[in-house]
Design brief:
The protein is an alpha/beta fold. The chain is built from 28 helices and 19 strands. The two termini are about 55 Å apart. Bound molecules: zinc ion (ZN). Zinc ion binds next to loops.
Length: about 725
């Protein structure tokens, strides 16, 4: 059994493991980080012409509404987030700091009393409030008592002595006069003044030490990883701080501001009586956090890939169809390692029970995401340099044109993974960094679920079984895309007697092949519509017809006609709940009395995630939840909550189950339908006659510990 290591594969491919985005990022010999490349990139809030110009105009008019000021600031923040993520981080940190820490934190504040909240807190600020009226409450209080103009002058004076050009100082001074929410330090840096000079001057004036972090040394550059873990990287990023070392018992923390509230916060988090604060540059903190982030990411992705690659054999994934261009394959896809990588991608999907694979070339990596239990998660990150080769390999497997990169294509891959035949429905789409590939996994095993494994309550199971056993009529399954409608229909068909009955389907597309059933593919382009296929089927003496979807009046009309002439019709509709399916059929143009006469039952469904049985935890419900449960007719001492373990990718959930709302149309409801009721009225009637709603069914599953309240509420919003 061959064992492969990611490094070996990469080096075989000639991938420079040192390149940015390489899965193994070395940390010692680092180039200056990306911030260096941008002129003025050191500014946490880049100078946006609109912002300054806007403020200026407002200043001249004497109408500087704090609300508009905040709006402009917020716009800058979002802009900078797109251009340069770090800008946003530091902007956020500053805003948060200003909101939470208050007085002592501000080195600069030209109009201390009149200030209002900062841009990020814009929602709180009344837009029409004029600056002449200070904001009420804590915001304004928090901003009061900042640094005095004298201190502004001190800093400007010191910088002038240090040889900073006067025009830059004047410009910075003007900015903070016009935008009182901004800090002088930021304005100075924005003017292109070296952050080191600015921060060291600030430190000198405040009488605290100033230090640089040696980023060239990577992880050995003089910051304390253990303390960082205790503070968490998120906290450091948000507040722009970095633990540097411990002196005696006292942690030394680098920060961009000398702020006692921040210092208190750090003391509490570290559980120490005192810390020493030193001033550092934001540049150094961002650089250090970047190094740490990369090392963590590189470690994880390396571990992941190696462990996966180690149990892959080259032959584990075989393309079932004989390749016509077998020789080209090697050439186009690079070499064997790419084939192995693609195999790993597909195998991972099978191992994790994914329904879709998304392969997206990004700037620095090839993002491989999987849809597992309905949610996308990123599991593999091969280097970006492999993007084109991986895409080409997949296109070859799907018999697509590998030379065509500007047009979307779609195809199908048939392969065997670990002895299991699977089908992948693949599509490509040109995008920014190449072509994005999405593959839907059509796994016959995942569809061959029995009706009684789908999570029906006992009553629903009895009623639904009875209605699909009926000799004629329409049974509808309804719900949004991805709610498991096809699985339910297939499971229903499987319960029917295929020997004694002629069962036909019209599908778009045929997702799975069912034994003993005639399946027809719809082709709208050549005129083979659902309605046309259905008419053709009706001439084939069918007993049961499954129709992929009822989309239009014509199809609905033929379906009703079939149901009323002694055939059983199963189909799907795209509605949110069971009662609205009935009204939908009327709304697309069918006679209400025909709908009432034809429809046997409507099943609305959703898929909810099941709690992972390996890690779910018990909890006494909070008063609020208890009240909610009581309102829903349940009383329970305990509820289950997701925790997360290795078996569920730390999500706390594993696998999915359906929740159902089954409307059985009886004679009384047929009369009601014939009178063409409105949706709300009809739904109320259905519930009065005993229909269990989606949410009620979901709450039953909460009660029995299968899932959580939040999961049920997530999929049944408003139902
Ligand atoms: Zn678990």
């Amino acid at each position: 059994m061959a064992k492969y290591k990611l490094q070996d594969i990469l080096s075989e491919l000639g991938v420079d493991a040192n390149a940015p985005g390489g899965a193994v990022a070395p940390l010692l010999a680092r180039k200056p980080h990306a911030i260096d490349k941008h002129k003025g990139a050191l500014t946490s809030l880049p100078a946006m012409p609109g912002n300054q110009g806007g403020s200026g105009v407002r200043a001249n008019e004497g109408d500087r509404s704090a609300g508009s000021g905040a709006g402009a600031d917020a716009a800058v923040v979002s802009d900078s987030a797109q251009v340069e993520g770090r800008g946003a981080v530091s902007a956020t940190s500053r805003a948060v700091e200003e909101l939470t820490s208050g007085a002592a934190g501000h080195l600069v504040n030209s109009e201390p009393v009149k200030e209002e909240a900062t841009g990020l807190a814009g929602g709180v600020v009344n837009g029409s409030k004029n600056q002449d009226h200070p904001a009420d409450g804590s915001m304004a209080t928090a901003r009061r008592g900042g640094e005095q103009p004298a201190e502004v002058q001190d800093l400007l004076g010191m910088l002038a002595v240090k040889g900073v050009p006067a025009d830059k100082l004047t410009a910075a001074e003007l900015i903070i006069k016009q935008s009182p929410n901004r800090k002088l330090v930021d304005a100075l840096i924005e003017q292109g003044i070296d952050e080191t000079i600015v921060q060291s001057s600030v430190a000198e004036l405040a009488g605290i030490p100033f230090e640089r972090i040696n980023l060239d040394k990577g992880l050995d550059g003089g910051f304390d990883g253990k303390l960082l873990q205790r503070l968490t990287a998120e906290f450091c990023k948000l507040r722009m701080v970095l633990p540097l070392r411990t002196e005696g018992q006292r942690p030394v923390i680098g920060s961009t501001t000398d702020n006692v509230f921040l210092a208190d916060d750090i003391k509490t988090r570290l559980g120490v009586p005192s810390i020493k604060m030193v001033l550092v540059t934001g540049y150094d903190i961002r650089g250090a956090l970047e190094i740490i982030g990369e090392s963590v990411a590189a470690q994880t992705s390396e571990d992941n890939m190696s462990s996966i690659l180690s149990d892959v054999e080259e032959g584990d994934v075989q393309v079932e169809r004989k390749q016509v261009e077998e020789t080209d394959l090697e050439k186009a896809a690079g070499a064997n390692p790419v084939i192995r990588l693609v195999n790993v991608i597909i195998q991972t999907a099978m191992k994790e029970g994914a329904s879709d694979i998304h392969i997206e070339p990004a700037e620095k990596k090839l993002k491989v995401r999987y849809r597992i239990d309905g949610e996308l998660c990123e599991l593999l990150n091969p280097p970006a340099s492999l993007s084109a080769a991986v895409t080409s390999r997949l296109k070859i497997m799907a018999n697509l044109d590998i030379a065509e990169r500007r047009l979307p294509q779609d195809g199908r891959i048939r392969c065997v993974v670990g002895g299991r035949k699977i089908d992948l429905r693949m599509s490509t789409l040109p995008c920014g960094h190449g072509e994005k590939t999405v593959m839907r996994i059509l796994d016959s095993r995942s569809i061959s679920v029995e009706l009684n494994q789908l999570g029906f309550s006992e009553d629903a199971m009895t009623i639904w079984s009875k209605s699909i056993d009926a000799p004629h009529g329409i049974n509808l399954v309804t719900g949004p895309t991805g709610s498991g409608k096809t699985t339910t229909l297939y499971a229903s068909l499987r319960t029917l007697d295929k020997t004694a009955m002629n069962i036909c389907t019209v599908e778009d597309p045929i997702e799975y092949h069912l034994d003993g059933i005639t399946q027809t593919q719809m082709h709208e382009k050549i005129g083979m519509t659902f309605a046309m296929a259905l008419r053709a089927l009706l001439r084939q003496d069918p007993d049961v017809i499954m129709l992929g979807e009822i989309r239009d009046l014509e199809t609905a009309g033929v379906a009703v006609q079939a149901a009323l002439t002694g055939h059983l019709v199963l189909s799907t509709l795209h509605t949110n709940d069971a009662p609205s399916s009935v009204t939908r059929l009327v709304n697309i143009g069918l006679e209400p009395f025909l709908v009432g006469a034809a429809v046997n039952a409507v099943l609305a469904q959703r898929l909810i995630r099941k709690l992972c049985v390996h890690c779910k935890g018990e909890q006494a419900p909070s008063e609020e939840i208890l009240e909610y449960l009581t309102m829903n007719g349940m009383s329970t001492e305990k509820i289950f909550v997701p925790k997360g373990c290795d078996k569920c990718r730390k999500t706390g959930y594993s696998g999915r189950v359906g929740i159902y709302e089954l409307l059985c149309v009886d004679d009384q409801l047929r009369d009601v339908i014939a009178r063409n009721p409105n949706v709300a009225e009809f739904r109320r009637l259905c519930i009065e006659r005993g229909m269990i709603t989606l949410r009620q069914d979901g709450m039953q599953k909460v009660n029995s510990g299968v899932t959580t309240i939040s999961e049920v509420l997530r999929v049944t919003d408003g139902h």
